[in-house]
Amino acid sequence: HMSRKCGSKSADDPSIVRASMRRTRRPLLSTLVASASLAFRAHQTAESFSGPPSLKRPSVSLLRAPRTGSRSDPALASSDGDMTESVPNVSPGTLATLVEYATSFSAANGLQVESGSGGGSSVPGTRSYVTAPISLLPQAYPRDQFERATSLAGPFNLLVDRISRDGPFLKETHEDVRGVDEYTGKLLEMYEEVYLGERRGDGWGRFARSADRLGIQRSDYMLHEDSATGGHVIKQVELNTIASSFAGLASGVARLHSFETERLGDELRSFLEGNERAVTGKVSDGGDKGVPASPAMTALPAAISVAYDRYVERHAGAGAGSSKPVVVFVVQPGETNTVDQRLLEFALHD
After folding, report:
1. 149-179: per-residue pLDDT in tens?
2. Using CA atoms, how far apart are residues 7 and 218, in angstroms rounded to an integer?
3. What's this model's pTM, rounded to 2 decimal places?
4. Which of 37, 76, 186, 334 could be stapled to 99 by a disulfide with Cβ–Cβ 3.0 to 4.6 Å?
């Protein structure tokens, strides 16, 4: 789906990333974490199965993933210490292999979040990381609806940009909200001061009004089952305009799912075919199938880099003794999504 949030959201946010993806020649399985067939969280037992109503599958009692660097047994046992078959069409042995792959892949590729407070370590300054809340396997998704979602990215980006430049419209449509939502009210005050020249005079914000603007949007969709036709169509849930975080995690989840479905293709065939049949009503023969790769960690840093270069081109040396411009990451206290933020920082540096 589109991009992710520019200010950082906690990794506990259930509306986890839907980064832009492109097609590859592998089974058509999307990496939508919020509607994935299986979900697990490090050091916690997953409690539910999330997917289209038509799947009608039982709740999933999943296995706990060990903390990275912990001394716990990597066999990934359930809360009672036994491997329990709880996923339709997946054997206990395959499930154990999947969880081990997922936690190992996560540690090697930055699919992690900070556990907070050093994970209970008594060593000052120690940081501990656990596997991020990710889906263990991908969810089947109709190709035509996936391609429709990606094709809408450009028009929605243009729409958001034009709305952001229409001050009177923004003020009018948010007038009733600003009085009851402090966050929205503050945003409107800043917009009025900077872009409309209100309260502080027209001179305030004149440089911002002439500056280039970079927009990173994320449009969220749910797959809706049409009761009349039995088919599925996408329905937009929301469009986020602060959307760069989770680009690193989303790209990593796509690679993880691709690895798992290729490495364990025979063992997962029954599960994947059953999942596809439940969503689309049939199992397609051959063709261009696969887990779409997410280019978010290429596209987002490139966009920020272009904005940076454009700023330098326009303003370098504007004042005596001017220093080199920087890209500022604003991180809230107690943030746990630091790995994702660092992935973006390192990619931008490269």
Report:
1. 999 999 999 999 999 999 999 999 998 999 8
2. 13
3. 0.70
4. 76
